[in-house]
Design a protein that fits this description.
Blueprint (H helix, E strand, L loop, with lengths): L13 H9 L6 H14 L5 E5 L5 H13 L2 E6 L28 H10 L6 E5 L2 H5 L6 E6 L5 H11 L3 E9 L12 H12 L3 E6 L2 E5 L3
Helix pairs in contact: 1-3, 2-3, 6-7
Bound molecules: magnesium ion (MG).
Length: 217
């Protein structure tokens, strides 16, 4: 989709593009481009973006690159125990991400990704549950990218915890928004996207399942 009100971001440099392409994750190229353009539009020098749901760091490379370019920071938050659908026996389980204690453990993969992409100086890793961090967070945010748990409980908590921190003129970006239940789970649509619109956020861009919602200034 044309970028409309978004500023078009340049492509990732070759080495970072290779890292982002090779790391496991769920972010089609067109959505990654739109995510970088959202960052290019809303991140300001000295500003902060938050990502909920780091997994192995694919989207953090895209967001982190733009943060580095403008002189902002990215904080990426994940408990690193995998979301519901990534547990053993579920659709998105990856047995190579199970740690020695039998639990999912994606933090080492995230750290390796950020090291390979040379983004450890720009991306701050927080290994914690999103609502726990939201409970004490106070910095106004240029951009919040919610790509976390897909249950109603988690999506509702992510909205309640993080939408209030988006500064006026900033953006809430939501992944895995599927208005048609035939296309995917409904929690991001019902518990993030629709409440944001009801609260006055304005949709400025859609690409695949990615939605860019701006808080009016
Ligand atoms: Mg996602």
């Amino acid at each position: 989709m044309p970028l409309g009100r978004l500023t078009s971001a340049p492509p990732l440099p070759a080495e970072r593009a290779r890292v982002a392409d090779e790391v496991r994750g769920f972010l089609p190229g067109a959505e990654a481009d739109a995510l970088r353009s959202a960052a290019a539009t809303y991140l300001r020098p000295g500003g902060v973006a938050v990502e909920i749901g780091s997994y192995c760091g694919k989207s953090a490379v895209h967001l982190g690159h733009e943060a580095e370019r403008v002189g902002a920071r990215l904080v990426t938050i994940d408990h690193h125990r995998g979301s519901e659908e990534q547990q053993a026996g579920w659709e998105y389980h990856d047995a190579s991400l199970v740690g020695p204690d039998g639990r999912m453990e994606t933090l080492p993969f995230l750290r390796e990704t950020l090291a390979l992409a040379d983004l450890e100086g720009t991306v701050d890793v927080v290994a914690a549950r999103s609502p726990h961090v939201a409970s004490w967070w106070s910095t106004p945010l240029d951009l919040v990218f919610v790509d976390g748990g897909h249950t109603d409980e988690h999506a509702t908590a992510d909205y309640a915890g993080w939408a209030p921190h988006v500064r006026p003129g900033g953006a809430l970006v939501v992944h895995d928004v599927f208005p048609d239940p035939a296309d995917g789970g409904q929690a991001p649509y019902q518990c993030l996207y629709l409440p944001a619109l009801a609260d006055g956020f304005v949709e400025v861009h859609a690409e695949g399942s990615l939605r860019v919602l701006e808080r009016p200034a």
